[in-house]
Amino acid sequence: DVKVTQSSRYLVKRTGEKVFLECVQDMDHENMFWYRQDPGLGLRLIYFSYDVKMKEKGDIPEGYSVSREKKERFSLILESASTNQTSMYLCASGAGEPPVYEQYFGPGTRLTVT
Amino acid sequence: AQTVTQSQPEMSVQEAETVTLSCTYDTSESDYYLFWYKQPPSRQMILVIRQEAYKQQNATENRFSVNFQKAAKSFSLKISDSQLGDAAMYFCAYARGSNYKLTFGKGTLLTVNP
C-alpha cells in the first residue's frame, strides 16, 4: 500500500513564525504536491515538485515556499505565518507516467495561526 | 484554464438507496482524465474511480459507477446500495493528458441516513 505521511496532524503557530510542514512518501513517486483545503473552496494547489530539487508554482503560491532535497520528502514552508494561512494542508504524491495520474494523499495537517 | 464545478454542496441519501453526485468541467483538451475522490471525516482522501476521456465505456468499481457524457462535459458519480461508510466529502477532479496536475471541484458532502 502507498503510504504518505505528514509530520503533524494538528499544529498551532503564532503570527510571524516560520513554519515547516513535512511530507514523506514511500512509493518512489516522482511527483509530490501540496494543497490547502478550505470549506467551500475545495483543494487548491500551492506548489508541486516533479523531481528532486525541482518545483513549480501552483495556483496559490504566495506566502509559501517548498523544498525537495530527497525524492521521498517534500516540505512546505511558511516563511512568516499569517492568520489567513490557517487551513488544512494536504500533501500528495503520484507517479509521473500516463495514463494514470492518480494521487495518493496524506492525512493532512490542520494548521492554526494565532 | 480548466474548471471543475460541483453544483451540489450537500446531498443526503437513505441507507441502501442510490444517489448521484454531479460534476461538470470545462476544457478544450481532447486528452484528459477524470476522477472522483472520497474524503471520510478525519480520514485520508482516497481515489474512488477514474475515467479516461478516450474511453467510451463508463468506469465501474463495485457499487460506484460514473456517467461520462463527453460532449456535455459531465461526469457524475452514482453510488448504489448506499452504506453508512459512504458518508464523506466527494471531490471531482480533472487532469489534462499531458499534465499531471489535478484541478478539483469544491466538493459535495454526502450524508447517509440509517
Protein described:
The complex is a heterodimer of chains A (114) and B (114). Chain A has strands spanning 4-6, 10-13, 19-25, 31-38, 42-51, 54-57, 64-70, 73-78, 87-94, 104-105, 109-113. Chain A is globular and about 40 Å long. In chain A, strands 2, 4, 5, 6, 9, 10 and 11 form a seven-stranded mixed β-sheet that branches. A four-stranded antiparallel β-sheet of chain A has the order 1-3-8-7, with no helix packed on it. Chain A has no helices and eleven strands. Chain A starts with a strand and ends with a strand. By secondary structure, chain A is mostly beta strands. With 114 residues, chain B is mainly beta. Chain B has no helices and twelve strands. Chain B has strands at 3-5, 10-14, 19-21, 24-26, 32-39, 46-52, 60-61, 64-69, 74-79, 88-96, 102-104, 108-113. In chain B, strands 2, 5, 6, 10, 11 and 12 form a six-stranded mixed β-sheet that branches. In chain B, strands 3-9-8-7 form a four-stranded antiparallel β-sheet, with no helix packed on it. In chain B, strand 8 and strand 9 form a beta hairpin. The mean pLDDT of chain B is 93. The chains are: A mainly beta (114), B mainly beta (114). Chain A binds chain B through residues 4, 31, 33, 40-45, 48, 50, 58, 90, 94, 96, 98-103, 105-108, and chain B through 9, 33, 35, 37, 43-47, 50, 52, 91, 95, 97, 100-102, 104-107.
